[in-house]
Amino acid sequence: MTSSPEPRRRRSGRSAPRRGPMLRRVLVFGLCLGAFAVAILAFRSVIADRPDPAAAREALARSEAYLKANNASAARSQAFGAVRADPAWGEAHLALARANLMLDEGIAAEAAIRRAIDSGVAPARTHALMAHAILLQGDPRRALIESRKAPQADRLYALRVQTRAYTAGGNLAAAQEAAMAAVRLAPASADAWTELGRFRLNAGDIVGAIEASAKAVDLDKGNTDALVLRAELVRTQYGLVAALPWFERALQRDPYRHATLIQYAATLGDAGRTREMLALTRRAMEVRPRSPQALYIQAVLAARAQKFGLARQLLQRAGGGVGQLPGGLLLGGALDLEEGAYARAIEKLRGLVSLQPMNIGARKLLATALLRSDASKNGIDVLRPVVERGDADSYALSLVARGYERIGERAEAARYFDRAALPVRDNAGWFSSDDSLPVLAAAAARGPRDDPRATLPLLRGLVEDGRGQEALSRAQDIARRNPGAPASASLVGDILMLLKRPGEAVAWYKTSAGIRFNEPAMLRLVEALDRSGQRQEASRTLALFLSQNPLNLAALRLSAHWQAAAGEFDAAIDSLEAIRLRTGNRDVALLAELAFAYAGAGEPERAARYAEAAYIIAPTNPAVAGAMGWALTQGGDHVGGIELLRKAVTLAPRHPMLRWQLAQAYADAGRSAEAVAETRAALETPGFTDKGAAEALLAKLAKLA
Fold first, then answer.
1. What is the pLDDT of residues 38-47, one digit of tens each?
2. 290 and 300 in contact (C-beta within 8 Å)?
């Protein structure tokens, strides 16, 4: 029987066998294996990076197909693939340049063009492309020089670049000549017609732009640039909602074109579709991770939601370029004002007012910042053109009143406080000017010919001097020479309104609104229709505008006023609440209107809450006192209601509605004699519209007597 061997005992004084050499051999072997693996990977990488002409040709063919299908984003992706497959192939770089140019990426396009030339592409083939790339980088002079080197084969492209370059340089005559030459050279080119439409839009010929864009879409229904231009013009001509399908059609062609995403997102936001807008800005930032335009739109959205810290962060991330544009200046100034950084707000808002002197909102913000920084006289000066208008709002008037109060001119302060308290506003006027007619004529002569903005002060001066017919003739002459410019038609309507001929102004305002149906055009047309006795047509015009621009505050407010006057209180409440959600709870006129609407809708308790909130802010405002009194009366408190209504009538004795409400309150309280007196006073007050109801009340009171 064999037993297993016993382990040998170690002899004292001897150590165990050493493992060091064995470990070293294993380590060396492992390192050799690793080096071999690295070598294999490196060899495979070299093999993979070898030019693959076949793959490059296939990618280039796909890129060209996408480019013809107006999907520049996909075309660029495939062009990148062609460049990776064969980095030394010039045609691949040229395809990448074309795609970048369609996406307005001037720097990237120039780099691709230079690599194409280095790879053997003849420089003559790149002149038109290079001119476009230079133009996108903001150098129209160099772009023109480069475009003139283009061969005859690229003549159409060169003319399109020249159209844009001349426009950017302010030479509209040369730009028009280049655009028309392109259309004559290629009358079936959608690109040529789109370029002509874009030029006409920039030149103010909206009718011509509409015609050219329609022609471009007819020629190529999938042309992305033509679809975007058509969307912009539909938005101008009809409204926000009507433009959305055109942007959607453009994005169906190229879902990741940054410029289209931004335009569509902005339109959705203005139309109140904020969730969709936010999704579009995020998609735009997938294309351009730090897109300034997308960040600006998100900042506006945050500010509307009163998330001012987030709005400031987003605006700062958008960069200085966006911050110096009018929208960026306005948003930045408002955020600085909210933060208490008045010096920064003044700097931004002063710059904006210099760019847009007719921007009343910017003037009010600037005046607020000046008043808060103890520059009251400067604040008054900023708002002087606004408060000299008959339709100046109570906020602007109150700001001026506070300014005079701070510099110790109590009498002037009281005058403006009195105007701010009045619920009645005169019709819209002009920004005033103290210049003489010779000075105004010289200024108009220095400005661009037929520019309504340059001519308008002179025409206003002629009307004020009693030479209204001469002003009208000049305005009509400008309109005849510029039939495609909506401002020219509006100019004639404005002169006719000044001459108190609203019926004749309607036709001119309709012409203007048919070209560009924006807020000023709508307000002009509605006012002319209303003042010429066409309230129903005015209501239809207002409703049409609201259907396209559902968040427009001016339209909502006017609609609510008319709805309440017609007894449609529920509809008025909807409109007014939509405004309150946007503007907050500090607008006393809005709160007073809400109180009146809720009282009319049979909700006196809610009416009283709104009226009380307004009364706490402005107890001397007659409209507010009247709203509080009417709400109390409708809730059964005749004594308190009559007291406040009497206060309102004392403050504004010429306001017919306040007198009529007081008369009804007296009648409800059984005070017939006082009710008769106030009803007769209301009937004798100019502007009173409820004559039938007043006469019926008088007849009822006579029977009771």
1. 334 333 433 4
2. no
